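Why predict the complex rather than its parts? Because the way molecules touch one another can change local conformation, and only a joint prediction can capture that. The input here totals 661 residues.
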Amino acid sequence: MTLLHLAGVTRTVQLVDAPPLTILSGVDLDVAVGDRVSIVGRSGSGKSTLLNLLGLLDNPTTGVLEFDNRPVKSFSSAERDRVRGRDVGFIFQQFNLLQGRTALENVMTPLLYAQGKQFWQRARIATEMLDRVGLGHRLGAMPDKLSGGEQQRVAIARSLVRGPRLILADEPTGALDLETGADVMALLDEVATGSGAALITITHDPAIAALATRHLRLDHGVLTVAGANIGRTVSDDDVHDDLRDDDLAAVPA
Amino acid sequence: MNRLLSNVVGSFVEAWQELRIHKTRVMLSLIGVAVAVCAITTVVGLGAVAQQSIVEQNERSGGRSATLSLYASASDGSMIDPEAMQELWATALDRYGIDYASRVLYSTQTVQFTDGAVPVQVIAVDQPYGTMHRVKLTEGTWFSVDDADRLAPAVLVNEVFYDRIGRPDLATHPTTALLGATPATAVITGVYPVSTWETEPAMYMLMDTLTALTPADQLAAGGGAPNYELWVPPEISEDLIVALQRDTESALGAGTQVSVSRQDYAAYNEDPFASIKLLVGGVAGLVLLLGALGLVNIALVTLKQRIREIGVRRSFGATAGRVFFSVMMESIVATLVAGVVGVIGAVLIVTNPMLQEFISQGMVTDFPPFPVEAAILGLVCATVVGALAGLLPALVAVRVKVIDAIRY
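Output of the joint prediction:
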């Protein structure tokens, strides 16, 4: 079942005294429930803009963007926020836990924007979620008292607490050491599998990208299947790139 | 409905969390708001007590609205024949159908106390005077219509008099000896309160009693003509003044001076506390403004740090409206709490017995309860300040670009 459908999506920004800048061009992408997609790309390749679009935070300039078979353009602003709250979970590189709130309060935050049972039983639901990520014993801990790995686990619990159908992970291991990053990704994969959600991971790290079943690459606003570029010569431009195609090629699919 | 309820409750939860985190800073800025609300509420509350005190005092001296006074004297300074005057008075009351009217004459009677005979001021009145001046008694009752026929005249004494005779129980019909031209034993049937500055004994007596006890020539020598008072509906008072003036002048003929005028407080009612109220209210308004500015300042400074947080909240489904409402709510919840503290402070100040005593000077028998409108005014002020202080940060918060806020 298709959750996200992008066809010929472009995104340009109007600049003062300059021709419009094209950030994304001709992006085609279909994401179904349960998919594991990784997107790699250099800084400035348009990853943030793509994330905005996938997370219903922005509209494409041209092209079709459908969420749940409904064109996103037809959503009102409040409706779009509500759909995002219900169906999309975000995980950020810097964790972005709310400071001064306990782990439990952080996980309860998305439930504050829910209705009915989810809203009124938010404490119980959030406690269960923290239990599932192995932090049932740290409910009252403030973010600054948690390790990086624990913070990201709280963030994972927070993104999944409303049972979203799409999880957007933006450099989820970028601020963690290798081993902790692997643990966190294993957990994310496990919880996402358990809930049947689609997981889109944006990353620099080929090892993390390799965990996905579909590998995409964003280059100067063009989204391609990463496998198609394997074998491309490494140009001088790419020397400073975090991710080289040959790294990716070395990873077993 | 469900959505509305969870939105409102959710906003409260968010606002409360935010306040809890920044409690020290918020509290400091709220002290100003609480003080200002307390001052405004106190001013309004004290105004009510002062108003009551003034109304009671004025009614006691000047009568209720509208009380007219008629005074006639001969141009050569001599007294007008009391009997002619009395007849004219009775005719006027009858003609205009006036039920509440009283003669008022200040005189003295010598009273035998245990430590000697003392001249005591007498206010001689007719029976309706009690209603016309809303005379309140601490004990006993006002004169009844039959009291004029009593063989032992009834008198109402003030607290000073009552203390001086040892505060006997009125049920035992205590008496006092009047040593006038016609000595008599009077029965004390009531006691009325005195203000803190009154130290001399005094008493009320019916006019008919006084005239029976005192020969006319002695009365004339002692006090002059009585004042004639009427309590009439305010709307007819103007016309009645003209009619009474005309009637009396024509009945008494040339060589007399007649003056009919309104003497109750409502005729020249001005709030003597108006200037103080205005001053304290103005200062309180300034303090409130400063408190609000402090609140805006803090809200804007913390907003800078909170842009990321707002971005995170937006990414988890908070609508723009919800973010606006939550930020606004923070400010309102905070000032409302400050307002409640301020109002409680004001209630404690205004209902403080020492302060009430100071304001009323012992002349208020019915202290009004703390005025609800003052409390409501205080809370409304606090809420409005909160809403105004929250508006600017809330507008900034709504304009936050979500992904930029998260990734900067």
